[in-house]
Design brief:
Length: 267
């Protein structure tokens, strides 16, 4: 489990995170949602120690990260940042090999090579392993980056808006992959995202942020609530139901009905 206690973060005089306190549950997908500038990406950076907090403490499996070396954190927690492009001409296999650096320091053992190949296979990239990253589609590239994270072999995986620039097909495919990582490999995933309905469909825990403050956290059924979401996003939501699950309707309900959705209003 990861626990965040009394964390503040400022850039100059601007407070970006204010008294953040929450726990990241093991073997779950936790979604961080909120408007632009809410502090979601900064929070990921602070927890992973890519950004030093102004004050407060982060504990990874009951160890204060202040007492951990960067190399030790990298063996427990991997991060895929929003801007993950690498300005090098790399094949898929070369990219995935970077994931072993915290363990191998650049000198790959037979065990490292096995983990790299297993990660490529798990992400169904065997036929593309010798393809250059910049020659692949956005969905294929994102799978390659997830394979790199898998090769790092950490318990905790942090993803900062991994669905950006992906169409609906690839977004759903990516979330199904992340579900498999939790169920089959017992990973713990924290993901920053903008699509509330995808968060509701795939996350088991949702945390809402606004102006650097955690305003609510809970199950999708608890968070997909008109009063909560109206306050977080300054928007007039309509909450509806599809097959017993809550979803957000951003415009007129009847427009969605005309598209073929069967909706029942949830009061």
């Amino acid at each position: 489990m990861i626990e965040v206690k009394n964390v503040y973060q400022s850039y100059g005089k601007k407070e970006v995170l204010k008294n953040i306190n929450f726990k990241i549950k093991d073997n779950h997908i936790t979604a961080l949602i909120g408007p632009n500038g809410a502090g979601k990406s900064t929070l990921l950076g602070v927890i992973s120690r890519l950004i030093k907090p102004s004050s407060g403490d982060i504990f990874i499996d009951n160890i204060n990260t202040k007492e951990m070396k960067n190399s030790d954190i990298a063996k427990r927690l991997s991060v895929l940042r929003q801007n993950n492009k690498i300005d090098l001409k790399l094949t898929v296999k070369e990219l995935v090999s970077f994931g072993r650096f915290p363990h191998s320091k650049g000198r790959l053992t037979e065990e490292d090579k096995k983990i790299i190949n297993d990660s490529i296979k798990y992400m169904k990239l065997e036929d593309l392993k010798d393809r250059y990253i910049d020659e692949m589609s956005g969905g294929q590239q994102q799978r390659a980056y997830i394979a790199m994270i898998l090769a790092q072999d950490t318990k905790y995986i942090f993803l900062d808006e991994p669905l950006n620039n992906l169409d609906m097909k690839y977004s759903v495919e990516m979330m199904l992959i992340l579900e498999k990582l939790v169920k089959e490999l017992e990973k713990t995933i924290v993901i920053v995202m903008h699509d509330i309905n995808i968060a509701a469909a795939f996350a088991s825990h949702i945390v809402t942020l606004k102006d650097g403050i955690i305003t609510n956290e809970g199950s999708p059924n608890e968070i997909i609530d008109k009063e909560i979401l109206d306050e977080v996003f300054d928007h007039d939501f309509c909450i509806a139901g599809v097959n017993g699950k809550k979803i957000c309707v951003y415009n007129n309900v009847f427009e969605e009905i005309e598209k073929g959705f069967i909706l029942e209003e949830i009061k």
